[in-house]
Write a structure and sequence with these properties.
Layout: H1 4-32, H2 36-61, H3 73-79, H4 96-120, H5 124-152
Helix pairs in contact: 1-2, 1-4, 2-5, 4-5
């Protein structure tokens, strides 16, 4: 039988995997970017995702999963936290617009995931880590939306 702590450990491990995927996603997008400014931003986002992964690994190693307030698997399941970590695939034929839309959605989901975790931990330092990650993902989302507005839909 899986415990609540084991469920959170799996979830944080999945979040670490998603941060690794985000790094790869932004690195690949940067290499394919048409504009130098876009490539620079995407490389910066990739570096920041490495930092997110490191923060999550540190929290996991520091026992963060023991600080969450859920006490039963049913309660854990009601939060449906894994919905924020769904993989959003891209096709090899994806356009710049497709890539930006997926990136914006990934950042939005990551932000919402970290916000939810910040509300579920009783530990102030862990709450701060998750709140910081949520803010950083929001900043990523806004920067990507700005690129989208400037380069994909400049007429709006």
């Amino acid at each position: 039988m899986t415990t609540v702590q084991q469920s959170f450990e799996k979830l944080i491990s999945l979040a670490i995997q998603r941060e690794e995927e985000a790094y790869e996603f932004y690195t690949k997008a940067a290499n394919n970017a048409e504009l130098p400014s876009s490539a620079k931003l995407l490389k910066e986002l990739a570096r920041q995702e490495v930092g997110h992964k490191e923060k999550l690994e540190e929290a996991l190693g520091g026992g963060v999963c023991e600080t969450f307030t859920c006490t039963t698997i049913d309660e854990f399941d009601r939060y449906d936290l894994s919905k924020y970590l769904l993989d959003i695939p891209l096709e090899p034929s994806s356009t710049s617009q497709d890539i930006l839309i997926v990136a914006i959605k990934r950042e939005e989901n990551a932000r919402d995931f970290y916000k939810a975790l910040s509300k579920l931990t009783e530990d102030a330092s862990n709450r701060t880590v998750f709140e910081t990650l949520a803010k950083e993902e929001q900043i990523h989302k806004e920067r990507l939306e700005s690129i989208y507005d400037q380069h994909i839909q400049p007429w709006m």
